[in-house]
Fold this protein.
Amino acid sequence: MQVTEYKPKIVAFCCNWCSYAGADLAGNNRLNYPDNIKIIRVPCSCRVNPMFILRAFQRGADGVILCGCHPGDCHYTSGNYYTRRRMALLFSMLSYLGIEKERTRVEWVSAAEGAKFAATMNEFSAQVAALGENKRLEDLRCKP
Amino acid sequence: MQRIGVFVCWCGTNIAGTVDVKRVADALRNEPGVVFSAEYQYMCSQAGQDMIKNAIREHNLTGFVVCSCSPRMHEATFRKTAEAAGLNPYMVEIANIREQCSWVHKDMEIGTEKAIVLGRTAIAKVNLNAPLTPGESPVTKRALVIGGGIAGIQTALDIADAGFPVDIVETKPTIGGKMAQIDKTFPTLDCAACILTPKMVDAAQNDKIRILSYSEVTDVRGFVGNFSVTIKRKARYVNEEICTGCGLCTEKCPQKKVPNEFNLGMDTRRAIYIPFAQAIPKVATIDADYCTMLKTGKCGVCAKVCTAGAIDYTQKDLIMEEKYGAIVAATGFNPISMEPFDEFAYSQSKDVITSLELERLMNAAGPTSGQFVRPSDGKHPHKIVFVQCVGSRCAGASKGKEYCSKICCMYTAKHAMLIRDKYPDTEVYVFYIDVRTPGKNFDEFYRRAVEEYGVHYIKGMVGKVTPTGDTLRVQASDLLANKQILIDADLVVLAAAIEPDKSARPLATMLTASMDTNDFFTEAHPKLRPVESPTAGVFLSGACQGPKDIPETVSQASAAAAKVIGLLVKDKLVCNACVASSDEAMCNGCSTCERVCPYGAITYADKEFRMPDRTTRIRRVAQVNQAVCQGCGACTVACPSGAMDLRGFSNKQIMAEVDAVCK
Amino acid sequence: MTHSDRLKEQILRTSGVNPLKCMRCGKCSATCPSYDEMEYHPHQFVYMVETGDIEPLMKSESLYKCLTCFACVDRCPRSVEPAKLVEAVRLAVIREKGGNRLHTDDIPAKLDDDMPQQALVSALRKYSK
Amino acid sequence: MQTVTRDMLVSRAKALLADGTVDRVLGWKAGEFTYDVTPGVFTDADAMEKEFVYGDFCGANFSKYLLTEARKTEKKVLVFLKPCDTYSFNQLLTEHRFDREKVYAIGIPCDGMLDIHKIRTLSAEGVTGIDTDGESVTVHTLYDGDKTVARADALAERCVNCKSKKHVAYDELLGEDGEIIDSARFDEVAAIEKMTPDERFAFWQDALSRCIRCNACRDVCPACTCEKCVFDNPNSGVENKSPANSFEEQMFHIIRAFHVAGRCTDCGECSRVCPQHIPLHLLNRKFIKDIDEFYGEYQAGEKVGSRAPLVDFMTGDLEPSEAVKRGETNA
């Protein structure tokens, strides 16, 4: 029986100006990262609504990572500052509800950091794989 | 229902190499809304684009998805294709199956599987696309050049030549930058001042150019076509209009012991000074750190001596606010500090100097007014050693720069040739790793230095310089002769690496222009758009974008000017179509969105609404100014009821993408 | 895998050095204090290990002339660390049968008053396993 | 017993009705039982005399009613605000949700309202009547006769941990103003934080799985005043009427808590009205506790026009990875 090695399903939101360009650079340098990571392009990391993240978990994602420009480098000057506050509160709440905190992550990746992007994706995928499938956030309200 | 076309690109073997494009096209053919699906070697080619146009006509498509390279590469191309075929350009979505799929996954099976999912996601998004028409914003017909070196001056001259007003902001009291400090220039050996000062004078006399010297940019707001910049004019305690530049005050000032930064501290100047004879603006400046009158209130010699009465000790910093349509960064470079490279004994002996210091020593207006002598004892040096790549091409070592500084080989060959020409009795040794002379007439210039002027080029690095007695013992390896050689040199010249000016990093933050890890400005595209920053309306000129010599700097300066002219000549700028828009029926008017908007694009108005029970009600609702909004989306998340949405990246579209990705 | 490939692989593994990073500038040899006594100089160690030409290195006396002062390691612009390569080649020699250069029983013969104790200890470390 | 009595309120309201400053009065009417008092609108003096009641069960926060009532009046609406209501009053004003000139607010002191759910568990089912005298509450029940309960035990949770007796908004004050109280309202949150993730998940799964999605919490919450809720907004992407695996059903509480984060004044109404007794206030308090810890003390509604933490930033804010560690004391 061929054991398919468990690969977590991961959604990555990348901001168009920095981290999406970083992802492209990782591609240009042919750096390898797991294929179960799918990237969704957003104009700025501040465009990512907590509802998108919860939707991803609810529809079966095992991990969500949000990449943005380094604070201070945001193309829209203050976008990633708001992201930082929103995600700090959201992640703290999710962990308060008992969801493993390793399933969510914010990473600042600039357009010149292709290597960092690939390394972060590899590390995050391994981290989420260690946790196994996401049962809790699929339905927080399922009847006991 | 949408009629969607799917076009999967091979991109030669870039995609087809690790993604089975046929299987992707077939799999995506039966996605909801898809009526046509095909694949082709080069979608971005003319043939590829014609294929799309034909498909749009034959299958009257309402939108299409191209599975190809990154949208940052060809989204604009495919939007133009759509427009040419009469389709709204925003009914196009790109699935990135090259940089983010075929190039990062080696296995064909995995790559194909992921390409199908990415294609499905793009289809889910394009199904919810709405035709958009971009708004327009006015262009302020005025440019700002930050940095008054040869790059800034050349850019300003070209822009003014096209009839647009330009401001040059220069932190030093005069424009001219590094080139003013250089003696001769390669490869033609004409004197730097002779070719620079006429341009400086042109800039001064051109009525379209305003030179704001001894000033710095403190804040930049707005966006392309509508920048508002705050400039601080530092107090120089001399009235620029009245001062004739006669220099009387600079002779009479009692404070003589001020290190002259123009000559890199090798000689001194007065507290009130004019940096060099051909300074533009030819106006004195009082150095507040050394002027006893400003510090203690007791002196005032310059005021007494000044015939024009231009001295004004009470002058304060002046803050100006200006509007600009385009900004050019021309902040230039500096040699790196030699402090971490003490194996060359730069701090232990005055006779170990950097190349820029050598330029000043050989320059007629330099500290030794042209007499080429040793800084320590003023004697004529008979044996000179040039050390190349000091601090350049260092990797992993925490002290140096990883890149090659590009100009050192040429200026060292120039120095060696000039010294051998003027003082044939001097022995010149150059220790090099490789001699890089890639320009026009560059290698011939280097060969002349070796063959006609007998400069000894030795392949091998200098290991150590130890001052012994009044000479410097240089220990180096000669790799070709496989010997370690020792030379007792009278003078050692270090070809120091160059790095961007310290003011570049804060400026980049102000302009939200991105920078690489070495603090050089990142260009929009290294090959195709080298003089533009990714931030629209910000252009790059000269060494601030990377190490380069004068010929390249001038050509890049003119290129940047051409781009600026291309922007300023437009009356209206087509703005970003993917901007926020609020659904007034659902807006609470709670001004949460207004607080997060970095551009202040949201205003409020009271509007009358017909209520279900046939009464009317006045409600406060948000309105987005399409020209000011840049489409970041912060407001769409801050708005609890989802009334604020972003065109092109709407809530429904991103939700659809998340669903498609997680399926 | 020929014998020299295996040797090269072992040397690179024990030293942790990547000789490909060397840009052939010669600064390591320039700063080497015992350059003249050494038959093969530090920059040659890097180049010859890289090309797999390791036999001559193992037979040469210069292995034992290196003072391990690490000047070359400190000054290499590409942080290639040549001294570690010399050490690795020395280890390759010592690890072979009978490769020990210094036996404990011939130490007394080498003793002299101004020989620092530390020199003996480091010699034992470097020349025998 | 409340220090302020029904008659004081009625006489004050009648005076204002008489001199024409107000033409509508928001107050309470008797409901089915003595403990479920329902809010009511009075436009003339004798209706007030007949039906106006006030007692230990008048916990409703009238700030949200002003959105609709303030539009119906030509002159002004009279509203009685307990100290915790005034914070919601200011928060709604900050968000321009009603016209301040159309409201005449009287600040009334409050000695804590009683929680019928607690009284039932402490005494017995089948409660027919309750009257309080001083520090004890006598409960008349159908089957078990009269029971007495100490008033302190019957106090609602939000009143036990009352955060402030100070009115931050009023046109007129009946009685003196109180002080902000350094209450232990975050202890329960801290207790949950100390649990292990599995225990926490079990706690919340048990609590939230009782939810019947009646939206009572949304309808009563003074921070949840959207013209149309995001779940009913067709282009919000989350609206789906007949959900197979409904995103709305499962994530409602997390999203609602996030939408009111930084705006919730911790008035406790959501927990009060929840028919399933889900401790919803613990969700909102978690956000408030985090905001206080990460970005400095902030009380929503303390000052009109204050900038909520989620629409503000500092360049030195902490990274989300640290926030998660700090928010969760033990792994």
